[in-house]
Amino acid sequence: MTFVQWNCRGIKNKKIWLKVPPFSISEFWVFQETFLQHQDHRLCSSKNYFYIDRQGRPGGGLLTAIPKNASGRIIPTGFSHNFNKEILAVEVHFKDFHFIIINLYAPQGLNIENVKYFFDSFSIPVFIFGDFNLHHPFWGSNRSSPLSNDFVEWLQNSSFILLNSSNPTYAAYTGSASLLDLSICSASISHAVDCYVSESNFESDHYPVIITWSILDHTPKKIKSIDWNRIMSNSATVLNTNTRLNALTSKISEVIRNNTKIITLPAKNYPPWWNLSCHNFQKLKIFFRKRALRLISESDWMKHKKYAAKLRFHIKKASRNYWDKICNITKNPRMFYSMLNRIYNHTNQEINTVNLILHNNHYISNPVQQSNLFADFFSDNSRKHEPIPLDYCEDCNSNLNIPIHLQEVRQAIQKTRNSTPGADGITANWFKRLSNTDLICITSFFQEVITTSYIPEEWKHSIIVPIPKPNKDKTKINSYRPIALTSVFSKVFERILIQRITHHLLTEKKIPPSVNGFLPLRDNQLAVYKIHTAISEAHSHRKYFIGISLDIKSAYDTVYIDGLIFKCLQLGITGNITKILHNFLQNRTLQVRWRNSLSGTKPVQKGLPQGSVVSPILFVCFLADFSETLDVGVEYSIFADDIFIFCAHTSLDHISKKLQNTMENVYRWCNYWKLNISPEKCSIADLSKKKLPSIPRITYAGFPLPWKQTIKYLGINFSKINQNGIILKNIRSKALRKINALKSIAYKNYGPRTKDLINIVNNSICSLFYYSCSITNKFSETQYKACNTIQTMALRVALGLPKWTPNIVLMKIAGQEVLSEKIKRLAAQFFIRQLANGVHSPIYDQNCNPSIKLIKRDEVMLANLFTELDTSTDHIITFPDTLISRSNFCEIFLSEFSFQNKAHPAFLIKDLFEEVVYKEFQDYHIIATDASKSHSFTSIAGISNLQSFVYRIHPTNSIFTAEALAICQALDELSVTDKNLLLLTDSYSVLQALKCLTIKSPKVIHRLAGKILVRKNFHQKISLVWTPGHSLIHWNEKADLLAKTVTESHPLLEWIAYEDIISRYQTISLQKTNLSFQHSKYQESIGDIPAMFTLTPWLKNRREDIIIARLLTRMIITPALLHRFGLHNYPRCQICNRDNNIEHIILFCSKYSNHRSILYAKLNFDPQLCSSLKAFFQNAVSDKRHLRILLQSLKSFDIY
Fold this sequence. Notes:
Layout: E1 2-7, E2 28-32, E3 47-52, E4 62-67, E5 71-75, E6 86-94, E7 97-105, H1 116-119, E8 126-131, H2 146-157, E9 160-162, E10 170-171, E11 177-178, E12 181-186, E13 193-197, E14 209-213, E15 221-226, H3 228-240, H4 245-258, E16 260-265, H5 276-295, H6 298-329, H7 336-344, E17 357-359, E18 362-364, H8 367-378, H9 406-415, H10 428-432, H11 436-452, E19 461-468, E20 480-485, H12 488-507, E21 515-516, H13 524-540, E22 544-551, H14 561-570, H15 576-585, E23 588-594, E24 597-598, E25 602-604, H16 615-622, E26 634-639, E27 642-649, H17 652-672, E28 683-686, E29 699-700, E30 703-704, E31 710-713, E32 716-719, H18 723-746, H19 754-770, H20 773-776, H21 781-799, H22 807-814, H23 819-837, H24 856-869, E33 891-893, H25 906-920, E34 925-933, E35 938-944, E36 948-953, H26 959-973, E37 981-985, H27 988-995, H28 1003-1016, E38 1022-1026, H29 1034-1044, E39 1052-1053, H30 1058-1078, H31 1082-1086, H32 1092-1095, H33 1102-1112, H34 1119-1124, H35 1142-1148, H36 1153-1163, H37 1173-1180, H38 1184-1194
Parallel strand pairs: 1-2, 7-8, 19-23, 21-26, 33-38, 34-37, 36-39, 37-38
Antiparallel strand pairs: 1-14, 2-4, 3-4, 5-6, 6-7, 8-12, 9-12, 10-11, 13-14, 15-16, 17-18, 19-20, 22-27, 22-28, 23-24, 23-25, 26-27, 29-30, 31-32, 34-35, 35-36
Helix pairs in contact: 3-4, 3-11, 5-6, 7-18, 9-12, 14-15, 14-16, 18-19, 18-21, 19-21, 21-22, 22-30, 23-30, 26-28, 36-38
Domain Reverse transcriptase: 448-718
GO molecular function: nucleic acid binding; RNA-directed DNA polymerase activity; RNA-DNA hybrid ribonuclease activity
Pfam families: Exo_endo_phos_2, RVT_1
């Protein structure tokens, strides 16, 4: 059903508009400022009207219209209607649905204190529509007022959710726009409600807001039943036969289809994690229960109990797996709202679609026609292909074109997510279940692609799923963005190519340091920090600073394919790999899936493919030569398709000339490479502290660039004044919207547990502050307090605690770092990581000279940090100068030999080891290493037949780092040049990390790989063998003994791993939360509170989580607690005449004396030892049994 909310500013002279969309297709009208008298309310014969007349006033009047087939009544509000407030509440019954519409008009701003109890008094779904006349950053305003602050506070603590928080609804005659008309609904229905603002104001100064409530019946749930055993055995047969490359994908697809069944469950409101096992065991449980009751059969009753237990197990497992997956999704903060949609749309995937699509002023209802319209829109091939003669420069000796190694395939499969498959139906799960033999076959198929440069047609085909953009009209095709589902076969192969291309670009320093994104070591924080440091330097030298943000129109879709391949060749990406990329990008096809219909196949000849894994890195290559457009003195920063150009100088005329020359060069560059920049969407801003004597006119293609007060780059608003305040306001408004939306899942009976909600808060809300920590670490203390307020507000929703819970207690039970402290820690982590990246950090240019100068405040922070560590930046373990991409540069034995089985007795391991050394490594020079970590020292040791060493190392280093450093030092000191080397270590994790070496591996592992490669240059064969610890192997025993005998007199190796520095400071930051609680007054009154993370495994559901959290924090709602905050008149117990708080109820109240005696008996507690609630709870939550008994007994105390 559809609602239209509109401040019409007089409806009498606008009746004609009610006959056109959106009014004509909406069931409900909610109008403010109608200017109608009693006799004027005959607008449409198909509606029933409820209204408040103007009654001689200069403005006002409310009207709510409902369909004729709906019934309704006005709910008395008890408010006197005056010039400052009009409220009309209507209770509606429509199509078996029961809800309330509240129509509101407050010309001078709504005072929520007067109406909040009325809003909160309803138990059925409520819609609140009105002209609130409030301004707040929460819904995009630049200012706020006391009334709006009170309103936002009420909204965050209520069960309502704001629906529209972006597009303005009011346009003043001066041209300014603001959002005054708010749409609010109950959190329980928010998942099915969508809204957008109309593009026409219909002769009013307010734009209508269209709200859609997708009330859909529960559709039958479809679950896939996959027989993986048969699929994998049949797939092995296909892979091991001589299947041609172009037929392989189709044959595997057929095998999967033949062994996959779609089972349809009855239409019910299933939890999102409900699977086939839950359904089957539920049926068995119900079946045997009915039989047991009918036949009075003990055996049937036992079977019922058995299947009930299995059902509980599978429900717990399915729920846990589902919410773990959801928490992983929210690690990307931009996926927060997608996560909410995924949770709520599990029962009906069509909830985000509409039945009508507007095309050429006609509504199309046929789903096949609609899907073909989408296909035509997404495959626009208006641009002609202009080929360039290309020479791929065949070079099979290049690292880019070497034969594919099995380990490359394994790593590519491991990185591929279990997302929706493409048209072939082959999932990532299929790849992850392949045996070693099957993986070898897959590797040979991929090698055939490399050799022949032939790309199967299935790899170039995409299924497009249109997803509506937020707050847009769903009847328009351009209100949707495409999500492409591509072949997982292709994705795995693309990841192999990406690994090779990125390694080539990094090691050869082909990409300028100012180009960031989609490359290892090039994150968005660096791009933002470069702008921040440039602005700060201009301020310190009293220079003008002008920045320009460029907007590339449809960036990925307009990439010139032949031009891209030409640029790849210029970057040294040559040989068959370039030919493969060219073939992959050409002659692609797509189909659109819409409302269970599939469009016809359409060819695509434009740009980079949506959904392709390789597209982002290719776009980086396409923009790699953008620096050629810059005039001398002009700098830039690029992240994906976001381009920021800036210039700083003491002369404004100099800046103006330089930037104009640059924009002319950019225009010529874009024309040559067939890119389009929209000058109206670009922006230019003055970010210096000096006042401009005049406004320079900078043009692009003859169009002047619009000047703005702030300029946005990668989500950060850079401003001339109050920089930190503007950044905080922007982040705060985003965080408040997410907290508001989080309420919609926080209290569902099948929703996430408290642990999951805390993870979601960290991943999606607090991470907004982490994103720009290199800038936000310079906030003032007042601004940090505002950040901490956002964190505590979100944690209260996650824990289900009231707003008066003390912040110190809240942080303790949540087990979280204080947000301000974490921002500082992550900022330090950012700078230390750049130091550890060494010459491979974008802070350095191609000549290894620093390209970004740290701000003085950051330099001081780093100096103090390393002073506390008693070390210097020179001792951080960094990447070697040459990065290693291959993981097969030496032999690593982890489980190949029989002595590596720890289940064997020690004497047998020793004998088997000596036998293996005699047979396999007879002529090798043997070296054994070990490490030791105690409270006094962290040490490393190595021993061979010729010599040995013992060193102390920095105590911050972990045992993992110490073991790796021991092997590094052994290669330096104990190696010989005339023999092959056999290195023995009992650190399985170090050898495993070395075997799976990637760019993200610890720096000490890269250091070890670099030293091994140096030895290999001497034509030495190096083998690393894992030996079980404490198994009587004399080499290990000697090394272990040496490492443990270290004293203060032994020399010190000052190397320190940055990963261990970060781990240390994270521990210190968490300890600050505990120390703050221990030094507070609450430690004495409440006692030590365990974190909810530790108690969650003992609790069954979200309700129990909330009850225990409130008990431990003494925030259970009691008369005494309510009286403390002015919400209850009488705080004392009517029986005992004592303060009626939680301590009195559980320990002393005579009303519950019998229940208390039973509870003490079950817990085996001595009442005298539990004379205080602090002592009682310390014992009651000490183990699972006690906690379960307490929860079961709370119902007797009228608490549960």
